[in-house]
Amino acid sequence: MTGERTGDPQVPASFAAALASLRERRLRGDVHLAEIPGPGRIAPYTVALEGEVVGGADGTVAPAPGDADAGPQEVATGRFVVLHDPEGQETWQGTFRVVTLVRATLEPELAADPLLAEVAWSWVTETLTAAGVEVRATGGTVTRVLSQSFGALDATADTVDLEIRASWTPLDTDLGAHLAVWADLMATAGGLPPLPAGVTALASRPRRTP
């Protein structure tokens, strides 16, 4: 994990420490990560990861009807970005900012649930609390999209795509703990146990891999 820098040629010690904490963090085995280019215009120093959570082979997520013998399937995806500006940014209220994205497909009957967005956002706040990390200026959005098929695709089941965007300012450089928070958020959105204490689960529909 190298990170991206667009400012000074010397990497600040705090950013180097943050990168080291990310490298050293061990996550649950059903989370798969890959490093991707970080955004270059938002902060002088960045690092970005994309991830997916797989489930189904061991019964952690029930397979869709007719897929009793299905192997591991992607149940959630996401992106984890660390931004660092040694000078700080007013909106961050600090020198680091963690920006996360989580996507998952849920059962279609949840589209009409008026509390869906509130429950999904509670995953963010409760997972941060359960991890014991100190943060400030937490914010984000929850979006749900109902997809219905017609005509030749009429037999295709309806789906609800849930997208959680959340960002916060960590108060230390142990960003490995924040990486674990994001991994737990993906697993929770994908319907995989175990869940942090007090987090409400919603049933998910496993994504099919090509």
List key phrases describing it:
7-stranded antiparallel sheet; elongated; 20% helix; alpha+beta; 210 residues; 7 strands; single chain; 3 helices; disordered C terminus
Could you give the topology of this structure?
Elements: E1 4-5, H1 13-24, E2 31-36, E3 45-55, E4 73-89, E5 94-106, H2 116-131, E6 135-147, E7 159-170, H3 175-189
Helix pairs in contact: 1-3, 2-3
Structure, explained:
By secondary structure, this protein is α+β, with helices and mostly antiparallel strands. The protein has one domain. 20% of the residues lie in helices and 35% in strands. Strands 1, 2, 3, 4, 5, 6 and 7 form a 7-stranded antiparallel sheet that branches. Mean pLDDT is 83; it is low at 57-69 and 206-210.
Largest sheet: number of strands, sense, barrel closure: 7 strands, antiparallel
Q: What would you call the shape? A: elongated
Instruction: List low-pLDDT spans.
Output: 57-69, 206-210
What value does the average pLDDT take? 83
Rg on CA atoms, Å: 18 Å
Number of beta strands: 7
Global structural class:
alpha+beta
Number of helices in the DSSP assignment: 3
Strand content: 35-45%
Listing every helix as H and every strand as E from the N terminus to the C terminus, the arrangement reads EHEEEEHEEH
Q: Between the first and last Cα atoms, what is the distance in angstroms?
A: 28 Å
Number of domains: 1
Helix content: 10-25%
Quick take:
By secondary structure, this protein is α+β, with helices and mostly antiparallel strands.
